[in-house]
Design a protein that fits this description.
The chain is mainly alpha-helical and about 200 residues long. The chain is built from 9 helices and no strands. It has one domain.
Length: about 200
């Protein structure tokens, strides 16, 4: 796949974000058994899925649906958690640049899902994606593979994760065709060199 300059920029930004994301998860990975590592770094893994679909290594409607839904869910979930626990994440002790390094990039994760969305998905594939999301939610909040986040009101954070699993699934399953048929989405994908 030949990439234009915009596509190369999108790819470079995502590669940097993915690498930083894996770095961010090192403390949690050190606390988790290796068998559960694939369930730990949700955001960097979602970027990895995006990159694989974006450059055409992972193809097909399942790959597109899976990667798009993962971007939407974990992009929005991270923003929710950071705002919900703003006393912690926006405190000077944590890091004053949280907006720039965490919130804005995660919003863009959810938005860039449009670049790889496909107009149709087999219902069985969509249900498989939802099942994977719900297994990951179970792993995060029952087994404990969630990121290192404040424990306060964890039930609300867990409920938001399940809600976003259902939302990402529902949004893509019921509305992706309409979004993809719009001229704006088509123009965005073409300008980024994505078919």
């Amino acid at each position: 796949m030949k990439l234009n300059n915009l596509a190369k920029s999108i790819l470079a930004i995502n590669l940097i974000g993915m690498l930083y994301g894996f770095y961010y998860y090192i403390p949690k990975l050190q606390q988790t058994g290796p068998a559960l590592w694939p369930l730990v770094p949700d955001s960097p893994v979602s970027i990895l899925f995006f990159i694989l679909v974006f450059i055409g290594v992972w193809r097909g409607e399942f790959a597109s649906f899976f990667a798009s839904a993962w971007l939407i869910k974990y992009g929005l979930w991270t923003v929710f958690v950071m705002l919900f626990h703003s006393k912690y994440y926006m405190s000077p002790e944590y890091f004053a640049g949280s907006w720039l390094l965490y919130i804005i990039p995660h919003i863009f994760m959810a938005v860039e899902a449009v670049l790889i969305m496909k107009p149709k998905i087999q219902p069985l594939h969509a249900i498989a994606v939802l099942a994977i999301f719900l297994v990951n939610d179970f792993s995060d909040y029952i087994i404990g593979t969630r990121p290192l986040i404040p424990e306060e009101n964890l039930n609300i954070v867990a409920a938001s994760a399940v809600f976003l699993s259902l939302f990402a699934f529902g949004f893509l399953f019921f509305f992706s065709k309409a979004a993809l048929e719009s001229r704006l989405a088509d123009d965005v994908r073409k300008s980024a060199g994505v078919r």
